[in-house]
C-alpha cells in the first residue's frame, strides 16, 4: 500500500517562518534590521518588532493558528509551552481583531515558578522571563490542540540567571565564535566575521504496540521495563540491524518524515537498529542551537506520530534489559561564515597547520575536561549504558583514525610530520564492480569521541536527553583551548616557530586521551586508569564535576555559567536523579504488589489444587512434576515478597531524606540494588509461570509484535 508520494520540496518548511518568508512579508528596511540582528547580535527596535510580530501572526493565522507560545527548554530536559490566543477585547459592536505585538514577540513572563531552578528562584521572587531567540526560526505546530505559533525563547530569572538549556548554549556559541576567530585571524583570515558550531544528532528509538505499552505501568511511568525476562530471541542474529523495515514501521517513518520536513527538519537517514524494535533517524546537520531545537521537535514528533499509528515510541536509554539501549550520536564541527570547516584536514593534514592547531586544541580540551564531557552526557537512563559494556564506555577517550594518529605520532616524536598516509584503493575483485577509493580513516564504533573525517562524533549522549548540555560543554572547552593558544601565538615573535612548538606541546601533554583500540575491552579500563583518565561510573558521581574550581573558572571566564548557576544545576541534577529512581521504585512496588505477586499466588494455588486433585483421583500417580514446580515457585515467591518488603523500606527511608547529594546517593547505592533484588526472582518466575497467569506483556510480545 503506497499512497501518492508527497512533494517534499513543496512541504519542506511549510510550517516555518523562514528568512525567505520574512523577506517576502516584511518591508525591506525591517527585514534588513532583523537580518542584521540574526547575523551580528543586538536588539530589534520596538517599531521593527511590532512589524515582525504582525507579519508573523498574519502568516500563522493563514495556517490556522489561534494561539502563540514562547517555546522554551527548562531544566526538565524537555520543552515547555504556555498558549495565549491572539484574541483581543471586542469593540462596542462586538468585533474582535486577532493581535500580536512586538512586545509579546520579544518578551514573555510565564508564571513558571514550578520549573526546577535549584534554588535560584525563591518563590517570592519567582519571576521568570522568556526572550525571543531570533536565530532559531518561529514555527507553527499543528496537532489536536489546533495550530500554535511557537517562538523559540531563552528562559531567565528576574536577575538574568539562566533557568534553561538554551541560554548557556547561546552563550557558549558566542564564546566559541570569538575565540575561533582569533585562531583564523592568526592564519591570515580577515574575512570571517563569525564561527559557528554545527551539530547533527543521530536519534535512536524503539517502537512498541500501544495497546501492549498501556498494559505495562513501568513503560508508562518510567519509560523503561522494570521487570521482564529475556525473549527466546534477542539481537544475536544481527538480522534486525539495517533489515527490511516492517510495513507498520515504514508507514510510521513516512508520516514522521513528512511532519519533520514541514517543520524544516531535514530528516535524512532512517534504518532499523541493532535491537529488535529499535530504529534510528538522522537529520542533516545544522547550527548548534537550531539543531538542539530540532532534536527536541524530533523527539516530540516521534511520540506524537507513534500514537496516531497505534504505536508507542520509547526514547529511554534502556527500555529493555539484555538488548542494546539507545543513544544519540552528537556530530559536531566548527565552520567559519566564509565557508571553512576548521575540522577539515584536507588531503594532506600534515601540511595543514591551522587544522593541526585546531586538532591539538580539541585534544587538549577533551583531556583537560573529560569529566565535564562525561557529565554532559549523563542522565538517569544513561547509567544503564555508559560503562555497562555497551555503547561507549564511561571513560572519555578520543579516536583519531590511522592517518591522523600517524601524523600526531610523527609530530610528538620529531616535531615534524613529513609524510601522510593516504587512503588506498579498495579492490572489489569483481570486474563489473568499480574499485573504490578508501577513506584514510576507518571507523571505531567503540570510541566515545571519534574523529570522523571533518567532524567529531560524541557518542555518549543518551537518547532521551537534550543535546544542549553536550554541545554547550564542547563549545566551552574548545573556546578555552583556542583562547589559551591565541594568547600565546598573538604575542609570538616568530609565529611559524611558535605554532609548531605549541602543537607539539599540546599533543605531547595530552596524548594520553588518544585511544584507537577497543573501548569495550576490560583491559582498557585498567589501561585508562594507568593513564590517569577519569572513569566516572554514574550520573550521581558525575555531578560534582560541574562545580569544581576548574569548571567554575572555565565557565565564568567565558560568561557561560556563573558559579551560582552551576551550583543550582548540580542541585537540580541530584533532585532529578532522586525523583526518577523514586518513581521507578514505587512503580516496581506497585507492579510487584498488585500484579505480579498476586498472579504467582493464583498460579501456585492452581498447582496445589492440581496436585491434590490428581492425588485424589489416582493415589498412585506420580505428581513429582507439579510438586517440584510448586516448590520452586513458592520459594521464588517467598524471595520476591521479602525483596518487596525490603524495597518498600529503603525507598521510604530515601524519600524521607533531605534533597541533595546525600539523597541521590541513597537512591543510587541502596534503592537501585533493592530494585534489582526484587526484579531477579520475578524475572525467573516469568519463565516458570503459565503465560495465562502472567499479567503483563512479555519482552517477546513487546519487541516482536510491531
Ligand atoms: P554515520 O555516523 O551513521 O555514518 P553520517 O555520516 O550520515 O552517519 O552522519 C551523521 C550525522 O553527522 C548527520 O546528521 C550529518 O548531517 C552529520 N554531519 C555531517 N557533517 C557534519 C559536520 N560538518 N558537522 C556536524 N555534523 C555533521
Ligand atoms: Mg554515527
Note down, in words, how this protein is organized.
Helix content is 47%, strand content 12%. The chain has 706 residues and is of the alpha+beta class. The radius of gyration is 28 Å and the shape is globular. 47% of the residues are buried. Magnesium ion (MG) binds next to loops.
Provide a concise account of the structure shown.
This protein has 706 residues and is an alpha+beta fold. The protein has helices at 8-11, 19-25, 28-40, 46-62, 102-106, 166-186, 210-213, 217-222, 247-262, 288-308, 353-368, 370-376, 401-414, 468-490, 495-510, 522-531, 539-543, 549-557, 563-617, 624-655, 661-688, 699-704; strands spanning 65-71, 83-85, 107-108, 128-132, 139-143, 146-157, 195-209, 267-272, 278-283, 286-287, 311-314, 328-336, 398-399, 425-426, 436-437, 449-451, 456-458. The chain is built from 22 helices and 17 strands.
